Amino acid sequence: MAVRLFVGNLSYGTTEADLRAYFGTVAPPSQVVLPVDRETGRPRGFAFVEFLDRTQAENAIQRFNGQVFNGRPLAVSEARAREDRGPGGPRPGGPGPRPGGGLGPRPPQPYGGPRPFDPTAAPAAPRSRNFGPDAKPQRGGAKKKQKDADRPRGPIPLKATGRSFTLEDDSPEEALPDIDDIATSKPHKEEDDE
Fold first, then answer.
1. Exposed, middle or buried by CB within 10 Å (0-12, 13-18, 19+), for 48?
2. CA distances from 33 to 94, 116, 160 (A)
3. Kind plus residue range of the DSSP H or E element containing 6
4. CA gap 15, 63 in Å, rounded
5. Interval 50-90: pLDDT, tens
6. How far is CA 129 from CA 15, 126, 133, 172, in A?
7. What are the DSSP calls for 104-143, one per residue?
């Protein structure tokens, strides 16, 4: 009975003739299949090599598994039938396999989809209409806001006198102009004005 081997991690430049010559050192393979991509026509990086005798196939596995061929270490093992491999992951062309296979009904989803109608049930809360991605998280949070509140903002304001006031303006040698400050001045009566 023929034994088929899976040969993985092939370089994309490997040809069927290269594989026949390489595996032919153990015994001439009865069949070599080098799958190519449907869209690009480029090899997919693996092949199947078939031997007529099981001992020849086992010798090929022991001899070539892990050996460097065309610059890459080969992964050689006995090929398994499709049913034995189990379900695969998502494929580039669409979603992964469905339970039961084919184009049957979708399995129930935990979110969304139609809900059964129950006239005795209380009305559901209104759904949020806020669609789109979540807002980008703010960095720093409350610490940054506190730090911003502690530091001075902008330039030192100018008074109407044309002079800027800072904390270092306690210089006694310069006379300050007399400013009528209604907040600190003593209220005077109208009789005093006369």
1. middle
2. 26, 52, 91
3. strand 3-8
4. 20
5. 999 999 999 999 999 999 999 999 999 999 877 655 555 54
6. 57, 9, 12, 66
7. -PPPPPSSSS-----TTSPPPPPPP---SPPPPPPSSTHH
